[in-house]
UniProtKB/TrEMBL annotation:
Taxon lineage: Archaea, Methanobacteriati, Methanobacteriota, Thermococci, Thermococcales
Domain of life: Archaea
Organism encoding this protein: Pyrococcus furiosus (strain ATCC 43587 / DSM 3638 / JCM 8422 / Vc1)
Pfam families per record: ATP_bind_3
Name of the featured protein: Alpha hydrolase
GO MF terms, alphabetically ordered: 4 iron, 4 sulfur cluster binding; ATP binding; hydrolase activity; metal ion binding; transferase activity; tRNA binding
Domain Rhodanese: 3-73
Entry cofactors: Mg(2+); [4Fe-4S] cluster
Leader peptide range in chain numbering: none
Length: 283
């Protein structure tokens, strides 16, 4: 479709509203924590949720990656001021002593960065009584995630795909309101509503597998329009094929922080060598 600016904004907002309704992502009486990075996707997620009447607060994690993180935090502040949403900031280096990329480990940087972000977002939401954590994952993100994990048959990760990961125990519900919108549409919407965002990629993202997957999918999309959407829709229809492996997994409570863990100590506390729990309760 070719739409004028006003009708494109209406189309985009209506599609987000329908996605929330179709997948039962959230209700208007729930408190939603939006993880904002300073980039376009998370900023658009916060903007649209606020415009649709949802109760939101934002959380920005400064990952301690030099100038990139400083710039990201500046953009996150600008975005939340523009949106009119409260912003909470956590600086990883102040919290844990090291920024992302400064830890001596054989583990890939993106791997422990992901672990750190997921843990802090969930713990912050849990400590402060939020009903859901919203992220800015779009259709392109989901398609590349699925392709990467299908190629490696990571069925446990595939079971966690989709627009909704229900809450369970101390795991807060995770939602993706932009699930059926492409990256191109998100960029167009950000420009249309006047949202400023950081354009630079994280320096550690260069050469990431997900970027390769996106490139392959973009080529397929160009030759066969609708490929990404059909791929993601097909996965949702067959998702149950991947679920048995994650059912019945007995999770314990981490001896240090009390959060869910597969062993005595959770991956986060083990990696960061914590001796006492972190508390994110807002005073």
């Amino acid at each position: 479709m070719y739409l004028c600016e006003e009708h494109f904004k209406e189309y985009f907002e209506r599609k987000v509203a329908r996605t929330i309704e179709k997948y039962k992502l959230a209700s208007k009486d729930e408190r939603i924590l939006v993880a904002v990075s300073g980039g376009k996707d998370s900023a658009v997620t916060a903007y649209v949720l606020k415009k649709l009447g949802y109760k939101i607060e934002c959380l920005h994690l400064n990952l301690g990656i030099g100038e990139y993180s400083e710039k990201s935090e500046i953009y996150a502040k600008k975005q939340c001021e523009f949106i009119g949403a409260p912003l909470n900031i956590i600086r990883v280096k102040e919290l844990l002593g090291y920024g992302i990329g400064e830890v001596r480990t054989s583990r890939p940087t993106c791997s422990y960065c992901g672990l750190t972000k997921r843990y802090i977002m969930n713990k912050f939401a849990y400590d402060n009584g939020f009903d859901a954590v919203a992220t800015g994952h779009n259709l392109d993100d989901e398609a590349s995630f699925l392709m990467n994990n299908l190629l490696h048959w990571n069925t446990e990760y595939l079971a966690k795909g989709g627009p909704l990961l229900p809450g369970e125990g101390k795991f807060v519900k995770k939602i993706k309101p932009l699930y059926e919108l492409t990256e191109r549409e998100v960029v167009a919407y950000a420009i249309a509503v006047g949202l400023e965002y950081i354009v630079e990629e994280c320096p550690y993202a260069r050469g990431a597998t997900t970027l390769d997957m996106k490139e392959v999918l973009n080529e397929l999309e160009e030759k066969r329009p609708g490929t990404k959407f059909n791929f993601v829709r097909g996965f949702l229809r067959k998702k149950k094929l991947f679920e048995p492996e994650v059912k019945g997994k007995d999770l314990k409570e981490c001896k240090i922080c009390g959060m869910p863990a597969s062993g005595e100590i959770c991956s986060f506390c083990k990696f960061w060598k914590l001796g006492k729990p972190l508390t994110f309760k807002i005073k």
